[in-house]
Design a protein that fits this description.
Elements lengths: L8 H19 L18 E3 L3 E4 L19 H12 E3 L5 E15 L13 E14 L5 E15 L3 H30 L26
């Protein structure tokens, strides 16, 4: 029984060049979105003993390598969403200011290994999110503050769609970490400015509350 013609010359070279790409495509599963959606109204608000809560709309500039600004919501807006959803004013004096200190997803090219015919190694995405809550008195005198940071990294394929899904998944997972760390830091550093009724206010209609696990 004949095994068919053996490729030679240009045909053989073409088969050699296409083989690594074909194998890489077969080995890589399609990217999927990971992590919980960005929204925190289902959680018990952090009740602050202040007259108002301000969300600073300033977006820090992370430079041209930042892909976090291309997402919807962007990395900075995701942090602001957490501030709006988690913080409530239950007092008569002073005010709280929520600030996005850092919100970036930086892309870095992975070094190629394994020779010329090695599969494209793609990119590495590094996400860093930092939020700060300040308690301000008269004449903007800072009475106290709490700051929380969360960081994660992951690899992504080079295609635009794969990178978008990887970046959005990374943002969701890092925001989950930030939300947990933020509440811990606020309750630790700003205990005198927590409202006595913290955790007792009724949730919005049709929404159930869920407490974050304590660490």
């Amino acid at each position: 029984m004949s095994a068919g013609p053996v490729p030679t010359g240009r045909t053989a070279r073409r088969a050699l060049l296409l083989a690594p790409a074909a194998l890489a495509a077969c080995a890589s599963p399609p990217p999927r979105l990971e992590g919980p959606p960005i929204g925190y109204r289902h959680l018990t608000p952090i009740a602050l003993d202040v007259a108002q809560v301000e969300i600073d709309e300033h977006t820090p500039n992370a430079g041209p390598a930042d892909v976090g600004r291309e997402l919807s919501p962007s990395a900075a807006e995701a942090v602001r969403i957490m501030g709006r959803d988690r913080l409530s004013a239950f007092g008569r004096e002073n005010r709280a200011r929520f600030v996005v200190v850092r919100a970036q997803i930086l892309r870095a090219r992975q070094p190629r290994g394994g020779g010329f015919f090695a599969a494209d190694p793609g990119e590495r995405l590094d996400c860093t999110l930092t939020a700060r809550l300040e308690i301000l008195g008269e004449n903007d005198r800072r009475l106290g503050f709490a700051e929380a940071t969360a960081s994660r990294s992951r690899n992504a394929e080079s295609s635009a769609e794969a990178r978008r899904i990887a970046a959005e998944s990374l943002l969701r997972l890092t925001m989950f970490d930030l939300n947990t760390e933020f509440e811990f830091q606020v309750r630790r550093a700003l205990r005198p400015y927590l409202a006595p009724s913290a955790g007792t206010a009724p949730p919005p209609a049709g929404v159930q509350r869920e407490e974050l696990p304590r660490t």
